[in-house]
Specification:
Number of domains of chain B: 2
Structural class of chain A: alpha/beta
Helix content of chain A: 25-40%
Shape of chain B: elongated
Radius of gyration of chain A: 17 Å
Structural class of chain B: alpha+beta
Helix content of chain B: over 70%
Order of helices and strands of chain B: HHEHEHHEHEHHHH
Largest interface: A-B, 22 and 17 residues
Oligomer: heterodimer
Radius of gyration of chain B: 32 Å
Strand order of the largest sheet of chain A: 6-7-8-3-9-10
């Protein structure tokens, strides 16, 4: 599904953020990208999601070579992913319902059909009662869950979360991870970046867990 | 089809909602465009009406036949005979050099020149009105008379109508230049307004791009906004032109009545109205297209 072959990424005027990295992610995997701050976790996620192009090597997503995609095809590639950002990137000028509506509007889904899916997504993260609330009135954990609802509403095959629990206390963090695990259970590929491997991975999921540990931009076993 | 319609109705509804929220700004924007567009439109109405006025006056070209100073009275007689018999001439008038000299001295403008001369320099002259006033026939007549014995110069006096025509052409050229300059200004104004709107929605655009929005999707609401500004501006300009013509007409009526004329400034016709609206809409679209493309290029570099 996602295949990296000797991928390097260098930002202009900087060292290699990712060095000579090769791995493969299968459909339905639960992948943890771990490492210290600055190890290249965010860069790796951006490469996976087609937000960045590699400097060298090949990134294959659904057998498409990202480096060779035309600029006009990139938006359609990105629609395969549900993205959850470290800083939420929620829009504070509209309520929860309209925040979740954005990906559907981008896909041209509107009206009743959209409303049904938006409510389903809000329900999954436990925010159905807050659809009319403005995001700024939500707690940190609720905002993160709203971000998850936005990421899953267009039913992507791959869910990518960049430090989704970074700013949350333990209770909320377990709560968020639980929501993400639930998506893995229904066949979604889930990729999570975090400082370290969480302790609360359910036993029945241990066999699908894949860990990519980064150190200074390089994968270590 | 339904999805296509949705993709256009949704941003349109969003833009209309935003415009209603910021009604004063929207109205002011339309007024700015209306005033700017109405200037060339008013000028055009005036020039167009003057052109019609000039076309209404029957142009009667006259030929002036100046005789040689030493032409004898028998030559003069022969020319008079020729004019009388000529088929292409409606009427003619003979002015002797003495009459012309007197007129020149009486005329305040030329009296000084007359006084400084000690001898009458003027020739005898015939003023001829041709039957056929087609320019090429008048020209042929002029060439024919130039050949006559005793004629120093045969000259056509239809120049004033040509001069008016040239002035009107100049007026039209001035309108063209004005339209080009103001059009450029409008593109800049709308572009700047749209750019400010983009800046207030930069977050939304960035997030949308991250989760797979195409450039068309991001452009669409801003293009609609620019187009709607153009439409509003065009309508405002049309109303301004109507009001100004109405206002002018009260004075024009008075003047025209003094000249016993039925002349009135005519309202802008359908062609002009449509041209005004369409140019306003396309300028609005162009301004927003330029602005949104520049912003998209900037975002992509981030």
């Amino acid at each position: 599904m996602i295949k990296f072959d000797r991928v390097s990424k260098r930002y202009p005027g900087s060292f290699d953020a990712i060095k000579n990295t090769s791995f493969e992610i299968e459909q339905g995997d639960l992948v943890f990208v771990t490492g210290a701050s600055g190890a290249g976790k965010s860069t790796l996620l951006k490469l996976i999601a087609g937000l960045e192009r590699p400097t060298s090597g090949t990134v294959l997503i659904n057998n498409q070579n990202v480096s060779q995609l035309k600029a006009a095809a990139i938006p359609y590639l990105r629609r395969n992913f549900g993205l959850i950002f470290q800083d939420h990137k929620l829009l504070y000028d509209r309520n929860c319902f309209d925040n979740v509506a954005l990906p559907l509007h981008i896909n041209g889904i509107l009206g009743e059909e959209a409303a049904k899916r938006i409510r389903a997504a809000l329900d999954k993260v436990g925010l159905l009662s807050k659809e009319k609330s403005m995001p700024i009135t939500l707690s940190g954990g609720e905002q993160q869950r709203l971000a998850i609802a936005r990421a899953v509403v267009s039913r992507p095959a791959i869910l990518i979360a960049d430090e989704p629990t970074g700013n949350l206390d333990e209770g909320y963090a377990a709560d968020i991870l639980g929501v993400l695990y639930a998506f893995q259970q229904v066949g979604v590929t889930v990729i999570i970046a975090s400082h370290e491997l969480p302790h609360n991975i359910p036993d029945n999921m241990q066999n699908v867990v894949k860990v990519l540990h980064l150190q200074h931009g390089e994968l270590t076993a | 089809m339904n999805q296509w319609l949705n993709q256009h109705m949704q941003p349109l509804r969003m833009v209309l909602g935003r415009m209603r929220q910021n009604l004063l700004g929207t109205v002011l924007m339309c007024c700015v465009m209306g005033v700017t567009l109405s200037l060339p439109a008013i000028l055009f109405t005036i020039v167009d009406n003057l052109g019609q006025l000039a076309g209404g006056i029957e142009s009667k070209p006259q030929l002036s036949l100046f005789l040689k100073l030493d032409a004898s009275s028998s030559t003069n007689q022969a020319i008079s005979e020729q004019l009388k018999k000529h088929a292409g001439i409606a009427k003619y008038e003979f002015v002797t050099k003495e009459t012309a000299w007197e007129q020149m001295q009486q005329n305040a403008n030329t009296a000084d020149i007359g006084a400084s001369l000690d001898k009458n320099p003027l020739p005898d002259a015939y003023f001829v009105t041709p039957k056929d006033i087609k320019p090429e026939n008048v020209k042929r007549l002029q060439q024919e008379m130039q050949q006559w014995e005793g004629v120093e110069l045969a000259q056509v006096d239809a120049n004033w109508i040509k001069r008016l025509d040239t002035v009107l052409k100049l007026g039209k050229k001035a309108i063209f230049v004005l339209v080009a300059l103001l059009g450029f200004a409008l593109v800049a104004i709308i572009g700047n307004t749209i750019r400010l709107q983009i800046m207030t929605q930069l977050e939304e655009i960035e997030v949308s791009k991250l989760i797979g929005a195409t450039n068309q999707f991001i452009r669409r609401p801003f293009l609609y906004a620019g187009t709607l500004y153009g439409l509003g501006g065009g309508l405002a300009a049309w109303l301004i032109v109507l009001a100004v013509v109405q206002l002018f007409n009260t004075s024009v009526t008075e003047i025209a009545d003094l000249y016993a004329s039925q002349f009135r400034l005519s309202m802008p016709n359908v062609t002009i109205t449509l041209a005004m609206l369409l140019s306003a809409i396309s300028l609005g679209w162009l301004g927003s297209f330029v602005a949104v493309n520049r912003s998209l290029a900037k975002i992509e570099k981030l």
